[in-house]
Write a structure and sequence with these properties.
- The protein is an alpha+beta fold and 237 residues long.
- The chain is 29% helix and 22% strand.
- The chain has one domain: Peroxisomal Thiolase, Chain A, domain 1.
- 44% of the residues are buried.
- The chain is globular, with a radius of gyration of 17 Å.
- It is built from 7 helices and 9 strands, in the order ββααβαααβαβββββα.
């Protein structure tokens, strides 16, 4: 049965991983500035030019991999990354088109253009951590993360990969878009493994029942936030 072996996040209340802290919460507000030194001990040549959405996703993925003992690597790994998002990189898209409109596109920013697809964040993570599995983003109307969990579980069941990162990533709704519920900014990922190779104690087992519900340690899970809260209540070593 697949196991949850790692948890990582960046939210309004802070950033971290499950084996270091258990105060995870997703709340409305302003996300913290993500500095390279907060995520990586060594220089990352692309980090400074990345958009905020990509930094957000990459940071949460890095924390989750470190929590699962999969941060360091010497050979490429067949690990998938699947993220659910409501707004994706819409902030970056708008910023890019702000550079396209003047001078008939002659001032269009190539740096921003490089991050005008939401899966660019996952590509950055795959390159940095040597991950070769499926890598894609799923749009959700609500930031539940269920779509990414379902896809990760299916991928493991049908042997597309033995390990996967499943999570949510959103920088929030652009301010000039009029919506009553603008969603909650933040990013959070879990590592799901068919069978862990490390000595770390897993958070627990995860499965799909006959009705398609996600079950974690015998409890039905409504969303990824609830799953992480359940994981942290287990307090693995």
């Amino acid at each position: 049965m697949p196991l949850i072996t790692g948890v990582g996040w960046v939210t309004v209340s802070g950033m971290g991983r499950g084996r270091e802290r258990n105060d995870f919460a997703m709340t409305k507000g302003r996300l913290p500035r993500i500095a390279r030194k907060s995520v990586f001990d060594k220089p990352h040549k692309h980090f400074g030019r990345m958009d905020e959405f990509s930094k957000l996703g990459l940071a949460a993925i890095a924390f989750a991999l470190k929590d699962a003992g999969l941060y360091e690597w010497s050979e490429k790994r067949d690990i998938g990354i699947i993220a659910s998002t409501v707004y994706g990189c819409l902030h970056t898209d708008i910023d890019y088109f702000d550079t396209v409109m003047p001078e008939e596109g002659q001032l269009a920013s190539p740096a921003l253009f490089s991050y005008t697809l939401p899966n660019c964040a996952l590509g950055e993570a795959a390159c940095h951590f040597g991950l070769t599995g499926a890598c894609y983003v799923i749009n959700e109307q609500q930031p539940s993360g269920i779509a990414s969990l379902d896809a990760a579980m299916d991928g493991i069941e049908f042997n597309e990969f033995e390990k996967a990162l499943a999570g949510i990533c959103d920088t929030g709704c652009p301010p000039h878009i009029s919506l009553e519920d603008k969603g909650i900014p933040g990013s959070a990922f879990v590592v799901i493994e068919k069978g862990p190779e490390s000595s770390l104690t897993p958070y627990g087992s995860i499965s799909l029942n006959e009705g398609g519900d996600i079950i974690f340690n015998g409890k039905r899970i409504e969303n990824l936030i609830g799953l992480i809260q359940e994981c942290l209540s287990e307090s693995p070593e």
